[in-house]
Specification:
By secondary structure, the protein is mainly α. It contains 3 helices and no strands. It has a single domain, classed as Homeodomain-like (Arc Repressor Mutant, subunit A, Orthogonal Bundle). Helix 1 runs antiparallel to helix 2 and helix 2 packs across helix 3. InterPro entries: Myb_DNA-bind_4.
Length: about 110
């Protein structure tokens, strides 16, 4: 999505609240908090692989596994399921803020 090219995590601005995951995984830390650097890496990795998924050259499950492996190489221990869940959380937060800002009587929120 184009919105993540200008997101606070990518442009090194202040980031919104961090998200906590409590999904189970054999080789991952449960209840680990995603920090700004981890979220930035996820967004950048997604940007690089998303075109292949759109073209049908790569399945989403494989993309999440590749991103998880890249994060492991950088020292972040998240499973493919946790990476996918974090992405879904980012998208949901973005959509909620966009819907909130579309209401005329709402104060402006930023993502």
């Amino acid at each position: 999505m184009d919105v993540f090219k200008t997101h606070a995590c990518v442009t090194n601005q202040k980031s919104p609240a961090q998200s906590v995951f409590s999904e189970e995984g054999n080789d991952t830390n449960n209840n680990q908090v995603w920090n700004k650097a981890q979220t930035q890496l996820l967004i950048r990795s997604y940007q690089l692989l998303e075109a292949k998924v759109s073209q049908g050259k790569l399945r989403k499950k494989s993309m999440w596994e590749k991103i998880s492996e890249e994060m492991r190489e950088k020292g972040y221990n998240f499973s493919a399921e946790q990476v996918s869940g974090r992405w879904k959380t980012l998208i949901r937060a973005y959509k909620n803020i966009k819907a909130h800002n579309a209401k005329s009587d709402s104060s402006l929120k930023t993502f």
